[in-house]
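Repro:
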Amino acid sequence: MKTLRRKWSVLIAAALAFLMTGCSLARPEVQDPKEDKFVGFHLVYEQLPPSMEELEAHPELYPPEDRSQWVEYGSEDMEIKGLGKVAFPREILIGRFDWGTGDYTFPGLEGRNCFLTVEEAEGGGNRYAGYNGLSNVSIAEGGEEESLSGAIYIGLPLGQTEWDLSEDEPEYCWTAYRVYQMADGTVYLDGTGNSYAGQGGMSFSEKVERTETVDGEETGRHSFEVKVEMKEVPRLESVTITQFGPENKALLETAFTTAELAGAAELTLEEDTLWLLVEEQNIDGTVKRTAYDREEIGEEGLSHFLVLLDEQGMGNPAYLKIKG
């Protein structure tokens, strides 16, 4: 997978547009960006910013970016040839937390949360949030070295059979936007981050270190690291489960569509079932098979892990409950 830097020209253009319009956006009350904590990434599948040649050739493919939800928060310096160092307003996009789902949404940048924040729990105390977009999550907290790691499943967008697109089509990429949290709990992204074009099979990470002080005296150092692995999976079409009894005789075959699997899909074993075979049929014609012994399933049952791709190719974890 090819790594691509977000273009500074896009940020400069946005800053110049802001200055020329004379608009005054609402600002967060906290005004000390240097004290905000890096908490991870928000992964978005989006168009790469076009070159001037691409924009002139196909302007209809590149609509203007909607930055109406972005707010001014401090400033940042840029070195511009002939002008020297120029301070531009720094804009951020504030995340909205949903207590029902535990997810943050960033208006206009729909994607997957891959970060670790601290939220005040409704019943009192604190709770971690921001990592619902990850699978195989591992969190290390409470010490001098904290970390978050997990996996993101991706695949081809709906209707696409290969990653390479025609030259007449806009190029898409996965952008890992850096996410921060203010002292008052506000979560935001500032538009910085790396973009990755192509298929999965790669990972990205970032580690930051902070010096902790009490009454102006250094008391130690604290580090936080985020690691995200991107795994490519085929697009699932259906799942068939065949139950087998004595002498490996097939007892019952049950099929599930992806729509059914997106809900609370369940299967209860027949009384004479000794083992079963789970077959995942993919749109590309491939099949993944997993066998389970009845003893392995047990009385409490188990959950068979699946990945359902949305239209963009973002993977949503799903579980098929198999009851003994």
